[in-house]
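Hello Y.,

Per our agreement to keep a running log of every chain we model this quarter, I'm adding this entry. I've kept the format consistent with earlier entries: sequence first, then predicted structure.
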Amino acid sequence: MSECDGPFDFPCEFPLKIMGLADAALAQAVLEVVLRHAPDFDGATMAMRASTGGRYVSLTCTINATSRAQLDDLYRELSSHPLVKIVL
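Predicted structure for the entry above:
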């Protein structure tokens, strides 16, 4: 599987970076949303990093993207989640 570059060539590996307030429920909430849109995602590959001050957390989930619609739906649902501040 190739990485998504420029104009997307699906299927491809696509990294999502999700940032939110440090909250014990954030990783589980993100995992549930990602699995709804990318059921083959392996939650054990999710990377987590706390900000220097410890107030925020960033999560990186690299999914096997199959379409632009899948990515749009995933971004929309993650962005609207109350624990999520930014999705890149």
